[in-house]
């Protein structure tokens, strides 16, 4: 196996006795688009700041290209960071903003001019050299912040919620731009967000964090289709997460012979979480599915309808392109292959119970 470009080994960090990262291990490959995803306060930014050198771990080691850089200052690391707040210098024009780092490094005027033009082209703002910061929109300012970072030709770009301040449409446009940019530059991106859709759209690898621990790490498809625990299932997309004991008899019916643990009393001896995505629930005519129910809520979401169906003592979240008005009698059907069964966590390193062949 090749050496990872960045390697965090047993990294712990506490602020005022509040343990934020607990023996975190994380390897980032060269040219990878890795996203740290998790709820507010889970330790994403702290991890990024430790990689960038803005924060020192209490214990543990940070390796870059196999070398220990734990004690190396941020400006001596081959990394650049883009923050949510663009932090552009308002008294400088765009060219001066982008050139700032290169001037400090003592690069020649011709070199700087060339690099600034190249960086502006990459972020689709050719010819913006003489514009003032105040004349740019939020999205344009963020692109300048990115240009200012990439002009230094870092091996790694660290991005801390860079699109967080933009409106939805602009954010989506910028997501595609960032993917294009990363592919053109051929460098490593480490991206922090609490927006699961953003993480799934952009990343090669998503790291789902909670309370300083990595809950799951994998491709967007793995994280979405094979969540390892109820936290991940709940955080990534909408889910029905049901305690097996609530629907024990129905569970056997739905799963049939596929999940023999239930038949052998696994559900009774050791409760499990049953996770079903709302788009995997089909609504059939009454009497034809597994559980009879009634539509209790209906919202139009643009591409689909979101419904809640009261059935078997549980309110099921269902997505469908068909509209079933409130009060409609329906029968729920779920393909057993779309059901995830997970042990309830006993400790941090609990695993999913595999029901896949
Ligand atoms: N410099 C600091 N001093 C004290 N506490 C801090 C400091 N930096 C972070 N923390 C605390 O550490 C915890 C993790 O913060 P961190 O910023 O890493 O989380 P996050 O996952 O990035 O959250 P958010 O999405 O809200 O930025 C939080 O409880 C935060 O208050």
From TrEMBL:
Identification of the protein by name: Spermidine/putrescine import ATP-binding protein PotA
Subunit structure: The complex is composed of two ATP-binding proteins (PotA), two transmembrane proteins (PotB and PotC) and a solute-binding protein (PotD).
Reaction(s) the record says it catalyses: ATP + H2O + polyamine-[polyamine-binding protein]Side 1 = ADP + phosphate + polyamineSide 2 + [polyamine-binding protein]Side 1
Record-stated family: Belongs to the ABC transporter superfamily. Spermidine/putrescine importer (TC 3.A.1.11.1) family.
GO cellular component: ATP-binding cassette (ABC) transporter complex
Organism this protein belongs to: Qiania dongpingensis
Superkingdom of origin organism: Bacteria
EC number annotated for this UniProt entry: 7.6.2.11
GO molecular function: ABC-type putrescine transporter activity; ATP binding; ATP hydrolysis activity
Role played: Part of the ABC transporter complex PotABCD involved in spermidine/putrescine import. Responsible for energy coupling to the transport system.
Keywords: ATP-binding, Cell membrane, Membrane, Nucleotide-binding, Translocase, Transport
Entries under InterPro entries matching the protein: AAA+_ATPase (IPR003593), ABC_SmlMolc_Importer (IPR050093), ABC_transporter-like_ATP-bd (IPR003439), ABC_transporter-like_CS (IPR017871), Mo/tungstate-bd_C_term_dom (IPR008995), P-loop_NTPase (IPR027417), PotA-like (IPR005893), PotA_ATP-bd (IPR017879)
PANTHER family: SPERMIDINE/PUTRESCINE IMPORT ATP-BINDING PROTEIN POTA, SPERMIDINE_PUTRESCINE IMPORT ATP-BINDING PROTEIN POTA
Enzyme class: translocase
Domain annotation ABC transporter: ranges: 6-236
UniProt xrefs under SMART domains: AAA
């Amino acid at each position: 196996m090749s050496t990872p470009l960045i390697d965090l080994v047993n990294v712990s960090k506490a602020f005022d006795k509040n343990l934020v990262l607990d023996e975190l291990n994380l390897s980032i490959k060269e040219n990878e688009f890795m996203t740290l995803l998790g709820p507010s306060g889970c330790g994403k930014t702290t991890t990024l700041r430790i990689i960038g050198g803005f924060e020192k771990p209490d214990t543990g080691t940070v390796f870059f290209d196999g070398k220990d850089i734990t004690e190396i200052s941020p400006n001596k690391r081959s990394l650049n960071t883009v923050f949510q707040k663009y932090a552009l210098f308002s008294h400088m024009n765009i060219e001066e903003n982008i050139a700032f780092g290169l001037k400090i490094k003592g690069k020649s005027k011709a070199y700087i001019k060339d690099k600034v033009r190249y960086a502006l082209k990459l972020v689709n703002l050719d010819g913006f050299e003489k514009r003032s910061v105040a004349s740019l929109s939020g999205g344009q300012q963020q692109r300048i912040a990115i240009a200012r970072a990439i002009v230094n030709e870092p091996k790694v770009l660290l991005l801390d919620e860079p699109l967080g301040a933009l409106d939805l449409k602009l954010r989506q446009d910028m997501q595609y731009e960032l993917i294009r940019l990363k592919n053109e530059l051929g460098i490593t991106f480490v991206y922090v967000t609490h927006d699961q859709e953003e993480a799934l759209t952009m990343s090669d690898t998503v790291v789902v964090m909670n309370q300083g621990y990595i809950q799951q790490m994998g491709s967007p498809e793995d994280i979405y289709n094979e969540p390892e625990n109820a936290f991940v299932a709940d955080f990534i997309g909408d889910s029905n997460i049901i305690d097996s004991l609530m629907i024990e008899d129905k569970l056997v019916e739905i799963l049939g012979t596929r999940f023999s643990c239930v038949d052998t009393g696994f559900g009774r001896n050791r409760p499990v979480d049953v996770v079903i995505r709302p788009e995997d629930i089909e609504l059939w005519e009454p009497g034809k599915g597994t559980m009879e129910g009634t539509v209790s809520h209906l919202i139009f979401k643009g591409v689909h309808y979101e419904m809640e169906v009261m059935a078997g003592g549980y309110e099921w979240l269902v997505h469908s392109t068909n509209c079933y008005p409130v009060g409609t009698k329906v029968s729920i059907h779920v393909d057993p292959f779309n059901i995830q069964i997970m042990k309830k966590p006993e400790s941090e390193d609990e695993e999913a119970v595999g029901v896949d062949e």
